[in-house]
Amino acid sequence: MSSQRWVGQSVKRVEDSRLLTGRGTFIDDHPPVANLYQAAIVRSPHAHARILGYDVAAALAMEGVVGVITGDDVAKATKPFSVGVTAPVHYYCTATDRARFAGEPVAVVVARDRYLAEDAAEAVLVQYEPLPVVLDPERALDPDAPLLHEAVGSNLAGHRRLVYGDPDRAFAEADVVLAERFKFPKYGSTPIETYGIIARWEPLDGVLTVWSNFMGPFIMHPLTARVLGLPENRLRFIVPSDIGGSFGIKTSIYPYIALIGLSAMKTGVAVKWIEDRREHLLASSSGTDRIAYREVAARKDGTVLGMRFKWFDNVGGYIRSPEPGCSFRPSGNFVGPYRFQDLEVDASVVMTNKSLTGPNRGYACGHLYFETERMMDLLAEKLGLDPAEIRRRNLLQREQFPYRTPTGGLYDSGDYPAAFAKALEMAKYEELRREQTKRRAAGRYFGIGLALAVDPSVSNMGYVATALDPQFRAKPEYLPKSGAVDSATIKIDPLGRAIAILGTTPQGQGHQTIVTQIVADELGLRPEDITVVDEMDTFTRVWSISSGTYSSRFGSVGTSAVALAARKLKAKLIEYAAHLMDVHPDQVEFRDGAVRVKSGQGPSYSIKDLAGRAHWHTESLPQGMEPGLQATAVFGFTVSQAVDPEDRVNSSNTYGFIAEVMAVEVDPETAAIKILKYVTVHDAGTIINPMIAEGQIYGGALHGLGGALYEELRYDDHGQLLTGTFMDYLVPTASEAPVIEIAHVVSPSPLTLLGSKGLGESSSMTVPAVIANAVSDALAPLGVRISELPMTPTRLWELIQAARPKRKT
Amino acid sequence: MKMSDKVPVRLTVNGTSREGRCEPRKLLVDFLREDLGLTGTHVGCEHGICGACTIMLNGEAARSCIMLAVQADGAEIVTIEGLAQAGQLHPLQEAFREHHGLQCGFCTPGMLMTALDFLHVHPDPTEAEIREGISAVLCRCTGYQGIVNAVKAAAPALNRSR
Amino acid sequence: MKPPRFDYHAPTSLDEALSLLGRYGGDAKLLAGGQSLMPLLNFRLSRPAALIDLNRIPALAYIKEADGQVRFGAMTRQRAVEFSPVVQARLPLLQEATRWVGHLPIRTRGTIGGSIAHADPSAEYPAVLAALEGQVVVRGPRGERTLRPEQLFRTYLTTSLEADEILTEVRLPGMPAGAGYAFEEFARRHGDFAIIGIAAMVIVEGRRCRTARLATAGAGPVPVRLRAAEEILEKDGLGDAAIDAAAQSAGELVGPDSDIHASADYRRHLTRVLTARALRRALARAGGR
User: Fold this and answer.
1) Domain layout of chain A by residue ranges
2) Contact C236, A633 (CB under 8 A)
C-alpha cells in the first residue's frame, strides 16, 4: 500500500497504451453488431428552397440498396425537436417542407456499403424551388428580408433585454462613454474524428439501441426519444470509451441519431453512418457568427461604471437546442472579472440560411471576452492609461470572494489580482513595454495584448431559461430548471482492487487516469489497482439529464462524484473494520490503505483483508450492513438554482480565472503576425494532473488562435459554403502553434470535494481577445484597431492600407 | 479492369502477407480497415489534408486515403498495429506517452507514422524542423506542444536503435 | 466521400499507357502521384470513365543529367527530387521550392510531372519551370514534342496537352555555379498552396547582374515569368533601387484574382514584396565573379 498522494502528480495516462497502438475503440472501429448496412445522406444543394418532391425509384432499384428515407417519411414518422425558445420553429431531423441551409439533410440511403450508398444517394432526385437567401443576422431582421419560418413570422428566434442594476444612470454619470461594433466569426473545432452512429432496432422488443460518439448533455436523450415516439426506457444510447475529439461539437450529433435511428426502424437492418469531412464542414455544428455593439461607461480614473451589450447571434437555419446558449450560457459571468454593477444585455438570436450552431469550445465566452477585453483596451487608450492599470483598477479583489455577480453568478473562489500580477511578471511586462518603445522607434510594429477572463465550468441547466420571458417563467404550468450532477460507482473486488464506473463521455481528457489518481488517494491504493470503465450506456449507468462531458464538467463535478463514492465506500470499510475489531468506529481511522485503531494498538485491516472477508463471509458484517463493497454517488451542486424573476442566474457552478499576456510583431508588408511571447496563468483550483491540465490549455489556446486567425465557415451570397474542405477551412498546424508559458495559481473551490474546477475550455475563450489586443497595440501607430475576426492577411493588410494615408497627413 | 470487377490485392502488412479482393475504386485506408481488419489507421478527411490515415508505404510515410488499394498491390506497408514489437512500445510511442503527445488519440496513428518518417530523414532535428515535419498531420487536442516534445525526445533513442 | 466507379488500368510501359489513353478518347484520367486527383475523385468532382495508373511504369522515374540539363522522368517523386544530390548540386532552386510542396508524406507520392501537368498556378513547380526556362516533353500518338512553359500553361488547371498525350519528362537547365537563388512563398499555413510564391535566380558578374530570372506562383491563371522586371535588374544591377524598381514592375506584370484566401490587390502587393525579398536573398547567395 502506498501513502503517496497521486492527486497533483503528472501521472502518465492509462488511456495511452491502447491509443498508441491502434487499439482504440472509436465508433468506426469496432462494429458492435454484425451485418451492418451503411447510410449516405442526401443533402440540399440550395441554401433555401421549397422541396416539391422526391423520386427515389432509381436509387431503390440499385443493387445493394435496402431503403431510402425522405423528408416525407421524417414528417410522418417523427416529431420536431423541442427548441429552447417559444417561437414555433419546427426543426426535424431532415428538411421536410423546405431546406433552410446548404447541406441540410433531405434523405438517407441505406445500402450494403458506403460506396454503394453514395452512388445511390446521387440517384435520389429531389425537386426544389429555390428561394431567396439571407445570411447576415442584422439584414435578416429587416421587414423585407427573406423569411425562413413562416410560422414564426420573422427570422428572430428569440430576443431578451436583460437589465441588471441601473445602466442608464451609470451612463448618465460617466465621464467617458465609448461605443464599438464587433464581428465574431463562425467557426467550429472540427474534431479529427467526425460524427459516427450505429443504430439497431429490435421491433419485437421495441428497443432502439444507438451507439454513437455523442458527448452529452444527456437531456438530448429524452428529446430524441420524444422525436422518435419511443418511451425513454426503450431508447438506449451507448457511447464507446474513445471519442476522437469533440470540443462541444459532438453535442449536436443528436438530430442524426434520430435520423439514423429512424433509418434502422424503417429498413429493419442495423445502420451505420460515419459523417465525412465534407458533411462535417457543411452541416455539423459551429459557434455563432455575431455582430455586437458594445458601450462602456467609465470614470476618468478608469473605473468602469457600466456596460451595454447588444448582439445579434446567428444560429443558422433553425435554432437547435442547446441554443440560444450562444447568448445566455455566460449569463452569470457576463461582467467577467470586473466589479461594475450596472449592465444591459440586448440579445437577439437570429435565423439565417447558414448551417446550425451549438456549443463550441468556450461556448459563447470567446465572443464575450473578445468584446469586453477590446473595450477595456479602447478605454485605456481613451484615458491614456496603461491597459494593465485599467484592468487592475476594475478587478474583483480577493476579499470579495465568494462573489455574487450582478447577473446572479456566484464566483466560488479566486485571487484575480495575484494571478494577473503573476502573468505580468512572467511576461516581464515592463520590459516588453520598453522593448516596444525601442522597436517602434525603429519603425517596427510590436504590440502587447492582455486579456482576463472568468472561466466558467459545469453549466447549470437552469441558465437556458434566461431565454424565456419572466412572465412566461411565472406561469404555473412552467417547470423551473436547475442542476448539474454527475455520478460514479466504485466497487471493490474480493482481492481488494477497485473498479470505477463512470457515466462520462471523455474525448481525450484522460478521465480514466484522473479517476485512478483520485481513488488511489481516497482508498490508499495504487493507481494500477484501479480499473476505470467509462463507456456510457443509458441502460446501465447512473445518469441524469445534465450528464455528459461538456462545459468543463469533469474536473469539477465528475471528480467530486468519484471522490464522494470513494468516501462512502471508505466509511463502510471503517464501520466494518471497527465491527471486526469490536471498537467504536470513532476509534479507528483509515490510513495508508488500511483501517487501524487510532491509538496504534491492536490489529489493522487492509482493504484486501476487508474485501476478502466481506465477499466470502457475509456473516461477519455488522448487523444491518448491506452486503457488497460498492458505492454509487451522485454529486450535485446546491448553488445550481433556477433563474430568478430578475433574470439573475448562477449559470455555471465553479468559476476559474485566466490572465494572459501576448506579444506579437506584425510585418507591415505582408500583414503576417508573429507571436513572440504568450503567457497564460490559470486558476482552476486544485490541479489533479498538471500534465493533463497543461495539455488542455495548449489545445484550448490553439482553438482560440484558429478562430482569431485562420478558421471561418465562409459563405458566398447564395449561401454556398466556400470553406468546405480542409484546403480552405484552415486548421492551424504545428508550424502555426505558439509556444506557451503556463502557470497556475490555486484557489481551491469550496464547492467541490477536491477543490478543483474545470479548465477544459480554458484559453480558447481568451486567445481571440489577447491576440486582437496585441495586434491592435502593434498597429496603434497606424491607428488600426481590430474589431473583426479572423484577422486574415488580406483583411489586416487592407486595414493597414486604409490607415496609412491618415498617418501621412 | 472494369469498374465493378473485384481485383485481387496482395501485399505485406506489418511483416505478414495479406490479400483481399476489392473494387478498383476502394481506397487503401478502407481496404486496410474493412478488408484486413486493421482499424488503427483512421479516416479524418479523405482528401489528404489531415494525415490521420498516414501509413508507411515501402518505408516512407504516405496518405492511405488518397491512394487506391489496388495501387498497393505488391507493396510493403506498416500500420500503427505494426509499430510496437513483441509487446514493447516503440521508443517513439514511449515518448508520446511520456510527453503527453496525445489526448483523444485519433490523429495519433498518423502522427506517429509521420514522425517516424520525419526522424528517419532528420535524425537530429531542430524544434522548427519538427514543427514543419509534423505539420503534415492535424491534431485538434494537444496544441502540438506535447507532440513536439515527444519527437524531440525520441530522436536520440531512434538514432541508437538504427 | 468515396470515389465513383471507374475502369482501372495499370500499364507497365508508356506505349501501353498511350494506347489505353487513345482507346478512352478523352474519358480517361492519368493517375500519377494522385495527391490532387484522388481528392477530386473522393469529392466526386472528377468522374473519369477510367484511370490509367502510371505508377507501374518504372521507365518514367529517373533523374539524369544530359546536355547541361537535368532531366526528370515525369513519375519522379517530389521526395526523390528533394533528396537528390544532382538536384542539390545543379538545381538548388528546385530543391528549395520542393520544401514548399505540401508535406513530406505528400511528396512521397506526388510527382514532378503530375504537379506540372495538373497546372495549378499556385503550385511551386510550374513557377520553377517558368523561372528556369525549362521544358517538358510530351508523347502522343503523333510522336513527341517539347513545350516551353508559356506554350504549356493555358489557364487554371489547363495545359496544351491533347487528351491522348502524356507528359513524360521535365527538363531544367542546370543552374550555373555561383548563381544566387531563392524561392519565397507566403501561404496561410505551412504546406498550403502559395498565396504568392516567387522563384528567383540571379547570376552576378562584378557589380552587374548578368542574368535575372523571376516567376510567380499564385499571381494569376498561369505562372508568370516577370521578364520586364528581370530586364530592370539586368540593366541596372542589384542595388536597392533596382531591386525596388524590379519589385514594382513585378506587381504591374501580374493579373491575380481574388479568392477566399486573398484578394487580388493583396496578391499584387505581395508579388512586389516577395519579389524584393527573393531577390535580396538570391543576391546574398550569389557568388560574384
Assistant:
1) 31-131+193-244+249-283, 364-462+650-808, 485-636
2) no
Last residue of a domain, one of C108, C142, C172: C172
Contact B134, B115 (CB under 8 A): yes
Q: Which CATH class is domain A485-636?
A: alpha beta
Output phi, psi for B23, to 5 deg. Answer: -65, 150
Which of B103, B126, B139 is the best mutation test for A, with the most CBs of A within 10 A?
B103
The model's confidence at residue C289, banded by pLDDT at 50, 70 and 90, is very low
Q: What is the number of other CB atoms lying within 10 angstroms of the CB of residue C107?
A: 26
Q: What is the CATH number of the domain that holds C90?
A: 3.30.465.10
Contact A140, A354 (CB under 8 A): no
Domain that holds residue C129: 58-172
Q: Tell me how far apart the terminal alpha carbons of chain A are, to the nearest angstrom.
A: 77
Strand order in the sheet with C180-186: C180-186, C196-205, C208-217
Query: Contact at 8 Å (CB) between A247 and A285?
Result: no
Residue intervals of chain B classified under CATH 3.10.20.30 are 7-82
User: Do B45 and B57 contact (CB within 8 A), yes or no?
Assistant: no
Q: Which of B68, B114, B139 to probe the C interface (max C CBs under 10 A)?
A: B68
Secondary structure of residue C180 in the 3-state scheme: strand
C-alpha cell at C127: 513557377
Residues A151-177 have a mean pLDDT of 98
Which class would CATH give A31-131+193-244+249-283?
A: alpha beta
Instruction: Kindly determine whether residue C273 and residue A725, on different chains, have CB atoms separated by under 8 Å.
Output: no
Q: Quick one: pLDDT at residue B3?
A: 67
Minimum-distance CB partner of C105 among B3, B63, B131: B63
Question: At residue A793, what is the residue type?
Answer: P
User: What is the ipTM score, two decimals?
Assistant: 0.98
Q: Report the C-alpha gap between A561 and A753 in whole angstroms.
A: 8
Q: How far apart are CA C111 and CA C109, in angstroms?
A: 6
Chain A neighbours (≥3 Cβ pairs under 8 A) are: B, C
Interface check C10 vs B, CB under 8 A: yes
The C-alpha R_g of chain B, in whole angstroms, comes to 16
Query: Looking at chain C, which subunits does it touch, using at least 3 CB pairs closer than 8 Å as the criterion?
Result: A, B
Residue A651's Cβ-side half-sphere holds a number of Cα atoms within 13 Å equal to 29
- CATH number for the B91-161 domain, one of 3.40.50.12240, 3.50.50.60, 1.10.3720.10, 1.10.150.120? 1.10.150.120
Grid cell of A796 as nine digits: 489586416
pLDDT in tens, A623-654: 999 999 999 999 999 999 999 999 999 999 99
Sequence-distant (6+) residues with CB within 8 A of A759 are A455, A457, A552, A555, A656, A682, A684, A693, A696, A697
| pLDDT tens per residue across span A516-571 | 999 999 999 999 999 999 999 999 999 999 999 999 999 999 999 999 999 999 99
- What is the rounded CA–CA span in Å between residue A264 and residue A36? 10
In angstroms, the CA C52 to CA C277 distance is 42
Same domain, yes or no, for C77 and C51? no
Q: Does domain A364-462+650-808 have CATH number 3.30.365.10?
A: yes
Nearest 5°: the CA angle C280, C286, C287 is: 150
Residue A242's closest CA among A62, A464, A575, A512?
A512
CATH number (2.60.120.340, 3.65.10.20, 3.30.365.10, 3.10.20.30) of B7-82 reads: 3.10.20.30
Average pLDDT over residues B21-28: 98
CATH number for the domain including C14?
Answer: 3.30.43.10
> A335: which 3 cell numbers?
461582467
Q: Do domains A364-462+650-808 and A485-636 have the same CATH topology?
A: yes
Tally of domains within chain C: 3
CB contact under 8 A, C5 and B114: no
